[in-house]
Amino acid sequence: MKENLVKQKLINKQPVLGVLSNSADPTIAELCGFSDLDFYMIDGEHSPVTTAQVQDIVRACEASGITALARVRSGDPKLILQFLDAGVMGVMIPGVTSVAEVEALVQAVKYPPVGSRGLGPVRAADYLLGSMSQGEYVQYANEQTLLLPQIETVEAVNNLEALCQVPGIDGFVVGPRDLAMSMGYYDGPANSEVRKVIAGIVETVLKAGLVIGTTAATGDQARALIDRGVLFCLNSVAGLLRSAAGDYLKGKEPAGQPS
């Protein structure tokens, strides 16, 4: 298993910026890596990406020096196992609301004695042909694997202090759009009440000594979040393309007339 550079940066209190991608094309991941982003998160929830395609996407990430992560659509331990066995170095799980769910995620993501993840001769373990012994690999994998449940509902917010006490998690990522919907604000997360709740989430998670992350549509937004202690910032591939295209298309606009 490779060193998880994103997790190491987060441990060192350094910000990481990356993208959530619903593309099954490994070339997109490779391009993101050569663009110096920190992580490429495969979206296994809102996308047609299959577990059979994950392995090639992870290979593209490794070739271009970007850390491969994944949003797995559910807490099904066998599904999580397939993503991790393919070489994904961390998972973000949507829709988590209870302590029992978070504890189950730790069991799915971590090998014994921390969890109950099954071990096989798979890519993540160098097919058990690498230089590490089995014991060394199991310990190293537990240290390197990143686990970030998502906070997306009012119920999760109400349970957040208890969720932060579950051993084995690295932090949480706020899903602002779904959180706004859960709060009854269907036009998006810009509402002042939603922003207030998100600020409270950030404060609670940081107080617990954990990583907090959320979405950042622009570099300015990312900088503002980082100033507040939010070290894990993600955009989408589509969002980056749209903003870059908008900047590029400004070249078509006529120059201002001299006064």
Automatic annotation (TrEMBL):
<dbReference type="Pfam" id="PF03328">
    <property type="entry name" value="HpcH_HpaI"/>
</dbReference>
<dbReference type="InterPro" id="IPR005000">
    <property type="entry name" value="Aldolase/citrate-lyase_domain"/>
</dbReference>
<dbReference type="GO" id="GO:0016832">
    <property type="term" value="F:aldehyde-lyase activity"/>
</dbReference>
<dbReference type="GO" id="GO:0046872">
    <property type="term" value="F:metal ion binding"/>
</dbReference>
<dbReference type="InterPro" id="IPR015813">
    <property type="entry name" value="Pyrv/PenolPyrv_kinase-like_dom"/>
</dbReference>
<protein>
    <submittedName>
        <fullName>HpcH/HpaI aldolase</fullName>
    </submittedName>
</protein>
<feature type="domain" description="HpcH/HpaI aldolase/citrate lyase">
    <location>
        <begin position="19"/>
        <end position="233"/>
    </location>
</feature>
<dbReference type="GO" id="GO:0005737">
    <property type="term" value="C:cytoplasm"/>
</dbReference>
<keyword id="KW-0479">Metal-binding</keyword>
<dbReference type="InterPro" id="IPR050251">
    <property type="entry name" value="HpcH-HpaI_aldolase"/>
</dbReference>
<dbReference type="InterPro" id="IPR040442">
    <property type="entry name" value="Pyrv_kinase-like_dom_sf"/>
</dbReference>
<keyword id="KW-0456">Lyase</keyword>
<comment type="similarity">
    <text>Belongs to the HpcH/HpaI aldolase family.</text>
</comment>
